[in-house]
Design brief:
Rossmann fold; six-stranded parallel sheet
């Protein structure tokens, strides 16, 4: 039986790489072969090997900057042309663009899905709530064009789907397909009395300064994994968190195997893969009280106002000092995490793919 050929974009510098490789692996048993079109910097040799170990996956580098770092509309237009040419050259059956700005009018002649993982418009809404700066205006216009050209739009949570619909004034809410993650296994370890946060520490939306202030109030170590300097030279200076730096997936899994209390004070989060990874490891969760986290982790996490450093410190201390509560919170987190698997994500996307292909065949 012939396999469905899917062209899917990714980038090698953020969470979309993990999303794309997990999705490609989970789609393979459902009859898909995936070409990963990597935008931005070329994948490292380790990343390329990781992807090409997945049955049915090939990697192609598309030398154009990712949309949120592009210098102007012409760079996005060039990326649209390159992706359209690649889709025609490879005779794909479907296209999934994980940066919808790259979906031009008539770019692809096959069903095209735009998946919103994040965007500068909804980020600004959450962080500033005021008129967009000029550098964001043209970017959001390109995203709006892409969303208008897509045959289907997908978001990783209902809260983010609502934010996207609101910002881009969409007539219909995007489909919701929760992200999923294939757990990285690590040997079980004794429970450590510490807290941890993981992510792009330089991103103001991660709100790590609040966690740095909380760390100053704690008697236990509060560790932080991730970069403090971003690709546009954004940086954050932290005084009280124990900085570990960037680590690969296996090293992160080994840290989480000690079941530290996982903490996020994010003010903006479309999904939160790091939270899912911590939940899969059985960590108790202390999360900011934002709609995305409420949707995904209600009844499992302890929620704190994202600006309340003392509240985070109090929540962490209450859990770390109550071992039965901590163990029970970790069990609940692991059980909830079982909803958000790569296989469930693939089934959700497969439903959308097949519906679009049937519509095209009937047209």
């Amino acid at each position: 039986m012939s396999r469905t050929r899917l062209l899917m974009t990714a980038d090698a510098v953020g969470g979309v790489w993990q999303y794309a490789t997990d999705l490609a692996a989970a789609l393979q048993p459902l009859g898909y072969e995936t070409i990963l079109a990597v935008l931005g910097p070329a994948p490292t040799s380790a990343q390329r090997q990781e992807a090409e170990r997945i049955a049915g996956v090939t990697v192609r580098h598309v030398p154009v900057e990712v949309d949120w770092l592009a210098s102007g509309p012409d760079e996005i237009a060039a990326g649209r042309a390159m992706l359209g040419q690649l889709a025609r050259e490879l005779r794909v059956d479907l296209v999934q663009i994980n940066s919808p700005a790259f979906i031009g009018c008539g770019t692809f002649n096959v069903p095209t899905i735009g998946v919103m993982h994040s965007c500068v418009g909804t980020w600004w809404d959450a962080m500033e709530g005021s008129a967009l700066p000029s550098d964001f205006l043209w970017r959001t216009r390109m995203i709006a064009e892409g969303l208008g050209n897509a045959d289907a739009i997908v978001a990783p949570s209902r809260a983010f789907a609502e934010a996207v619909q609101r910002h881009y004034r969409l007539l219909r809410q995007p489909h919701v397909v929760h992200n999923g993650r294939t757990a990285v296994l690590a040997a079980p370890r004794a429970m450590h009395d510490c807290a941890i946060t993981i992510g792009r520490l330089w991103d103001a939306a991660k709100n790590v300064r609040v966690l740095d202030a909380a760390a100053a109030k704690l008697a236990i170590p509060f560790k932080a994994i991730g970069a403090v300097t971003g690709p546009n030279s954004e940086t954050v200076t932290l005084e009280h968190l124990h900085m570990i730096g960037q680590r690969d997936n296996q090293a992160v899994a080994e840290c989480l195997a000690a079941r530290p209390i996982f903490v996020s004070a994010a003010r903006y989060e479309p999904f939160g893969l790091a939270v899912l990874e911590a939940a899969q490891a059985g960590c108790a969760l202390v999360l900011s009280n934002i709609p995305t986290f409420r949707e995904l982790w209600e009844g499992v996490a302890t929620f704190v106002d994202p600006q309340d450093a003392q509240g985070f410190a109090d929540a962490i201390e209450a859990i770390v000092g109550d071992i039965p509560r901590r163990r029970e919170a970790g069990k609940r987190a692991r059980k909830r995490a079982s909803r958000y698997t790569a296989q469930a994500m693939a089934r959700g996307m497969d439903t959308i793919y097949r519906s679009l292909m049937q519509q095209k065949a009937a047209a």
